[in-house]
Design goal:
Blueprint (H helix, E strand, L loop, with lengths): L8 E4 L7 H12 L3 E4 L14 H8 L2 E5 L15 E2 L3 E2 L10 H4 L6 E4 L2 H15 L4 E4 L7 H7 L1 H10 L4 E7 L16 E7 L2 H7 L6 H13 L4 E8 L5 H15 L8 E7 L4 H10 L13 E3 L7 E3 L2 H18 L4 E5 L1
Parallel strand pairs: 1-2, 1-3, 3-6, 4-7, 7-8, 8-9, 9-10, 10-11, 11-14
Antiparallel strand pairs: 5-6, 12-13
Helix pairs in contact: 8-9, 9-11
Bound molecules: iron/sulfur cluster.
GO molecular function, one term: metal ion binding
Keywords: 4Fe-4S, DNA damage, DNA repair, DNA-binding, Iron, Iron-sulfur, Lyase, Metal-binding, S-adenosyl-L-methionine, Sporulation
Subunit structure: Monomer or homodimer.
Amino acid sequence: MNKPFIPQLVYFEPNALDYPLGKELKEKFEKMGIETRFTTSHNQIRDLPGETDAQKYRIAKSTLVVGIRKTLKFDTSKPSAEYAIPLATGCMGHCHYCYLQTTMGSKPYIRTYVNVEEIFEAADRYIEERAPEITRFEAACTSDIVGIDHLTHSLKRAIEHIGQTELGRLRFVTKFHFVDHLLDAKHNGNTRFRFSINADYVIKNFEPGTSPLDKRIEAAAKVARAGYPLGFIVAPIYLHDGWEEGYRHMFERLDEELPQDARDDITFEFIQHRFTKPAKKVIEKNYPKTKLELDEEKRRYKWGKYGIGKYIYQKDEEDEIKSHLYGYMEKYFPNAKLEYFT
Ligand code: SF4
């Protein structure tokens, strides 16, 4: 994806127009000649176009719903943050393995919430409750928020809001490179900007509708130069022909682009490819031609919560992945904080 996301169709909850952002978005989309409709609730869109489930799914992923976040009780987001800050839900990307397919079920459209000030006030109350402890908010639990922020700037406002607090911290992750409008945000070092990166093969085959590796790394370098603490998620680490070479290339590109002084306060999260039975079912429905290897026989079973276990790589495969990736980390990012998830 080389151009920022533009929705094909936009729904508004009528009350969203009582908020400045709602009004602004309505005018903006009308000027752009995009069809706008009204819906009574962002939780229920009844007349989405499309004949088949597959068509409806594709259309939903390019549909934006502008609504009001009524529940101002934030979900927890342990262990990496205390709370999920709800700025948006859904994503225009088509990553075959994306967990939103299972969590969002029949509502894959993208929702953005215009009552940002109320959301920030709720965040402030959470910060106050935990004082003098730090309170961390994750903004990308249910969306790739950077991918739509060029339209709304709510993430930018959240960065600046949390930047003004003493005890609040913000984090999010993205697969998009449209970061320019965030570079001058007054983040005050309180936001960790993370990019999800991978070997080219994985991006090309399993992440349609997202930015290419080179663009993500260029964007990460810009963000680092703008003084944000930086992080990377390498997920899913996926075994494929030439994977050693693919991940080596990824680290070499990072090494070429990233300023040296961004490497002391930097985090890496490695997450191996895994899947559950319900996820496999929904992936095969949404992306029937995927090359993603989802063969239970080849994997090791790891028991999980609520009886839904994960199929993960065999122990020897895991050891090999670790030995390669840890080698690169030692070479290029010896001071990084590193976490590994199976
Ligand atoms: S970019 Fe992230 S949220 Fe969007 S489809 Fe891909 S994995 Fe899912």
